[in-house]
Amino acid sequence: MKRLVFLPLLLIFGLHNLLVAREQQGRLTLNDTLEVNYSLIHREEFNDLDHWKAEQQPGGTVVLNGGRLEIEDKAGCTVWFDKQLHQPVMIEFTATVIDEGGPQDRVSDLNCFWLATDPWHTNFFGDAHPHRAGKFSQYDSLKLYYVGLGGHNNTKTRFRRYSGDGQKPLLPAHDLSDEAYLIVPNVPNRIRIIVFTTTIQYWRNEQLIFNVYDASPYDSGYFAFRTVNNHLFIDDFNVYELSKMDVP
User: Fold this and answer.
1) Is the pLDDT of residue 219 over 50?
2) Among candidates 63, 58, 61, which has minimal Cα distance to 75?
């Protein structure tokens, strides 16, 4: 009897280890001609906020809640991951926009910045920090990539490349309004962001929403969750380094 119980437990334990290993490293196809290796370099359990810096307008909160990051915002919030990232890189996280009748439960603005740098301040979190307090326009002077998922009251999903001089052009191909690209409330969104040399990709639940070629890509910078006047839960935040697969 003990033997019959023991063997399945071994199998379950082995399968669990295999799944964990696959999460930590593996292969990923970016397009028809490019396949890459990925390897985990950071996993965030949200047991504390040691690696996170919140810039938020009055009236909102950024707290830990059961192993998740909970953002309730009134007038603008940016939550930075404090480790500088270098491409090629992949960032993944799960985010849920809450709509349960709360005061900030507005279905809109599941947004993020990545590979952000400040050309006007040497220390991104030092001398630059007092100039940023969660108001969206305060980030116009940065160099970064941005996606606003379900912005404008969940009517638009947009990709922009901020150039560091206030310019953040919006190309027609990067301005989406089809329902397939908008937010479904109370449903987890698994977001995957990839920067591999000149290829920038943004995925949601295995749906490739943006596949952008950038002839002058950003090489390094910081990641942030960005939102305004809504209620989010975020968990399962992972960062991977990428490398091109060797051709046999």
Assistant:
1) yes
2) 58
